[in-house]
């Protein structure tokens, strides 16, 4: 997400940084390009106009004109204004642990509500809560079944009924939650293909009965400004607390993420970053602004690494590296640990300056599977002692993995480069060399 916007903004700011002195004229020219980039990203016209106006008022002030690095100062201002546009600070949702909390998810059909329910339950369980899911979407075919399947996968109970009466289902769910000592119920409500009176009346009645602690509007980031328009209508009727943006890992242009807070007055609270149950994270405006401007997001990268990495394995690997014992078995372990952190293109996008360096490079599961196929085609001895893999062995491995000798040669070469790099890193002698990716 934000790929095209990031590229456009990087081009604008590169020109600005290249000028030793800035004037009102070249700042205005640059900001016209910024506004055009925002509009192409499907940001609301009024919001884009106000954003550029706010930046311009600060950019032509003393803090920029008298700066030794005026171009960098303008980028800093844009960064700060983007953070403000998206809400200023992260909204952390905390739930009291001494009572039954209730969360309602609302939105149009196809926005990803049911999946978001499952993801939220997983997230709050990691925080120590004891959640249960409630199937109140009684209209969409297979909606109840979908939630039950997701609940079973996560080992989280689902309250459902053959009834079409959502208030009766809600009453049943509250009784279930109190009986089984749950401290959180997450309600999946019905969606429609468009706003309609019956649907809104039903969720209003459900809200009145439940008095939920939080109502989250679920919006598909791929729909851009349409998501913002629908959110506005839902907010007028339900006064929801925040927004969950789904499919942020797709090719959305970013308009919803940049417009929804300014339009509804309600913050984005969570974002869906993939298809797996764990692919949800709190929305942090500062981190997102850094990603948009190509500055990376090292904090999120570190957090994902801390969640995915096995500390004992990492310590053992460090000892083995010092003894020059890094093998293909170690390589497979590291590949699996990185894979747990999320899609590789997402991870690389969080690294400062990685956007341009990786442009056009394909980082997908298919390439990783090719690498794994080659390694799995090696014998136990070959994995432990890669140096013995010569001519005939390489031909056998290529044939067994369904790849080519060239692919095997490339992997062996990259493995050697990685081994050297990791050894240097472990010994503290890491220079400015670049890490060779084991695929692509």
Topology, pairings included?
Layout: H1 3-17, H2 24-40, H3 45-59, H4 62-65, H5 70-85, E1 101-106, H6 113-126, E2 131-136, H7 143-154, E3 158-159, H8 166-179, E4 184-189, H9 197-210, E5 214-220, H10 225-238, E6 242-246, H11 255-264, E7 268-272, E8 280-282, H12 285-292, H13 298-308, H14 311-322, H15 328-340, H16 344-349, H17 354-357, H18 365-376, H19 380-384, H20 391-401, H21 405-427
Parallel strand pairs: 1-4, 1-5, 2-3, 2-4, 5-6, 6-7
Antiparallel strand pairs: 7-8
Helix pairs in contact: 1-2, 1-5, 2-3, 3-5, 5-12, 6-7, 10-11, 18-20, 20-21
Brief rundown of the structure:
Helices cover 57% and strands 9% of the residues.
Descriptive overview:
With 440 residues, the chain is of the alpha/beta class. 57% of the residues lie in helices and 9% in strands. The protein has 3 domains: 3-85, SRP54, nucleotide-binding domain (Four Helix Bundle (Hemerythrin (Met), subunit A)), CATH 1.20.120; 101-293, P-loop containing nucleotide triphosphate hydrolases (Rossmann fold, 3-Layer(aba) Sandwich); 301-427, Orthogonal Bundle (434 Repressor (Amino-terminal Domain)). α5 packs across α12 (285-292). It is flat. An 8-stranded mixed sheet has the order 3-2-4-1-5-6-7-8, with helices on both faces.
Derived from helix and strand composition plus strand pairing, the structural class reads alpha/beta
Rg is: 25 Å
Largest sheet: 8 strands, mixed
Number of helices: 21
Helical proportion, percent range: 55-70%
The H-and-E topology, N to C, reads as HHHHHEHEHEHEHEHEHEEHHHHHHHHHH
CATH superfamily assignment of the largest domain?
P-loop containing nucleotide triphosphate hydrolases
Strand elements, count: 8
């Amino acid at each position: 997400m934000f790929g095209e916007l990031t590229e456009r903004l990087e081009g604008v700011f590169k020109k600005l940084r290249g000028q030793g002195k800035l004037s009102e004229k070249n700042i205005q020219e640059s900001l016209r390009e910024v506004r055009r980039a925002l509009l192409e990203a499907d940001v609301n016209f009024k919001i884009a106009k106000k954003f550029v106006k706010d930046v311009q008022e600060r950019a032509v002030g003393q803090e920029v004109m008298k700066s030794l690095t005026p171009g960098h100062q303008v980028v800093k201002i844009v960064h700060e204004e983007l953070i403000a546009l998206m809400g200023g600070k992260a909204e952390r949702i905390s739930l009291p642990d001494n009572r039954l909390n209730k969360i309602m998810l609302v939105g149009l059909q196809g926005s990803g509500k049911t999946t978001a329910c499952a993801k939220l339950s997983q997230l709050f369980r990691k925080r120590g809560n004891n959640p249960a899911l409630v199937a109140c979407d009684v209209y969409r075919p297979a909606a109840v079944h979908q939630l039950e399947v997701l609940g079973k996968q996560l080992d989280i109970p689902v309250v459902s009924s053959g009834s079409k009466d959502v208030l009766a289902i809600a009453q049943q769910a509250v009784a279930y939650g109190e009986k089984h000592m749950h401290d959180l119920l997450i309600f999946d409500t019905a969606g429609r293909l468009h706003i309609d009176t019956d649907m809104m009346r039903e969720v209003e009645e459900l809200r009145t009965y439940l008095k939920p602690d939080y109502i989250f509007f679920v919006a598909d980031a791929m729909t851009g400004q349409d998501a913002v328009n629908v959110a506005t209508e839902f907010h007028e009727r339900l006064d929801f607390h925040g927004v969950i943006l789904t499919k942020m890992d797709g090719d959305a242009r970013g308009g919803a993420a940049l417009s929804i807070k300014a339009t509804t007055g309600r913050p984005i609270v969570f974002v869906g970053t993939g298809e797996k149950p764990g692919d949800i994270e709190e929305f942090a405006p500062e981190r997102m602004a850094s990603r948009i401007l190509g500055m990376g997001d090292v904090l999120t990268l570190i957090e994902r690494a801390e969640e995915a990495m096995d500390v004992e394995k990492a310590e053992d690997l460090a000892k083995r590296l010092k003894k020059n014992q890094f093998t293909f078995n170690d390589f497979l372990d590291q590949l699996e640990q990185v894979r747990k952190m999320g899609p590789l293109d997402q991870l690389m996008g969080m690294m400062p300056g990685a956007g341009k360096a990786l442009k056009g490079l394909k980082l997908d599961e298919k390439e990783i599977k090719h690498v794994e196929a080659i390694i799995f085609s090696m014998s136990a001895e070959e994995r432990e002692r890669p140096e013995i893999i010569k001519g005939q062995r390489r031909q056998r491995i290529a044939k067994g993995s369904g790849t080519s000798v060239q692919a095997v040669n490339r992997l062996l070469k990259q493995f050697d480069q990685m081994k050297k790099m990791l050894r240097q890193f472990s010994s503290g002698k890491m220079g400015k060399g670049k890490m060779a990716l084991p695929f692509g």
